[in-house]
Amino acid sequence: MVCSEHFAEECFERCLHVEGSQRTLRPGSVPSIWMNKNFQEPYTSRSVQNRKKQTNYFCLSYRLDWTGKNSREEPKGIVFLSKLLLVFQHCHLCFSANPALSVTQTGTMMTIQSSCSCCSETFIWQIQPYLLGKFPVGNLLLSFAILCAGASVNKVLLVFRHMGMLIYSEPTYYYHQRHLLIPAIVSFWRSYQAKIINSLNGKEVTLAGDG
C-alpha cells in the first residue's frame, strides 16, 4: 500500500502557502520512500521533531485545549462504557481482534484490562491518572469541587446516580475531606499567612478591631 508517507515533501503542493493547509500530490510524482513495517527510525533530533509533529493536537474550541494544563484544568467529558469499549476491539500490542476484556471500577475511575489469546499479553488502561500514587484524580477533584462549592454531597451524588454515572460512596467524600482536603487548605492558609506577615516585617501597619 502506498500513501503520503512514501513521497518526498517536494512532491506535494499546497493550495495556500501556509503550513498545515491541505496539500495535493504533484502530477508525475513517484514514490521514493519505502519503509519496512518493522522499521524504527533512530532517535535523532530530527526524528524527535518528526514524532512531535505527528502527535500535534489541534482543537477547534479553546475549551478542549489541554496543553499546559494540570489535572484540575484539563477538559473532561462524560464517556459511555459501550463507546469506550469500541477502542478495545483489537489488541493494542499485536492488533488481533476481540481480546478478552474486563472492567473494574474505583469510584469515578474505570480500569480496562485487555487479554489477548494470540500474543498472550495483557494491556491495562485506566481512564484517570493517580495522585499520591493511589488516589484516582477524578475522585479527589470531585470531592474538592463539592467542598469548594459548598454543595451538599448527598445531592451531588444523587444527581450522578440518576444519570447512571459511576461514583464513590458518601464516606469516601468525608475521608477525602478529613485526610486530604482540609489539611491541604490549612497548610496553604498558614503558608499564605506567613508570607503576608513576612512582607510586613519592619513596616508600620494600622490595625482595626471590632468590640
Can you give me a brief rundown of this structure?
The chain has helices spanning 45-54, 81-84, 137-149, 153-163, 170-199; strands at 12-14, 23-25, 100-106, 109-115, 122-126, 130-131, 135-136.
Can you walk me through this structure?
By secondary structure, this protein is α+β, with helices and mostly antiparallel strands. The protein has five helices and seven strands, in the order ββααβββββααα. The radius of gyration is 26 Å and the shape is extended. The strands form three sheets. A three-stranded antiparallel sheet has the order 3-4-5, with no helix packed on it. A two-stranded antiparallel sheet has the order 1-2. Helix 3 packs across helix 5. It has helices spanning 45-54, 81-84, 137-149, 153-163, 170-199, and strands at residues 12-14, 23-25, 100-106, 109-115, 122-126, 130-131, 135-136.
Q: Describe the strand arrangement of the main beta sheet, using strand numbers.
A: 3-4-5
Shape: extended
Strand content: 5-15%
Would you report the number of β strands? Answer: 7
Judged by helices, strands and strand pairing, the structural class is alpha+beta
Mean pLDDT: 82
Uncertain regions spanning at least 5 consecutive residues: 35-54
The radius of gyration is 26 Å
Oligomer: single chain
Helix content: 25-40%
InterPro entries: THAP_Znf
GO molecular function, one term: zinc ion binding
Protein name: THAP-type domain-containing protein
Domain THAP-type: 1-34
Give a quick set of tags describing it.
211 residues; alpha+beta; three-stranded antiparallel β-sheet; two-stranded antiparallel sheet; 7 strands; 32% helix; 14% strand; THAP_Znf
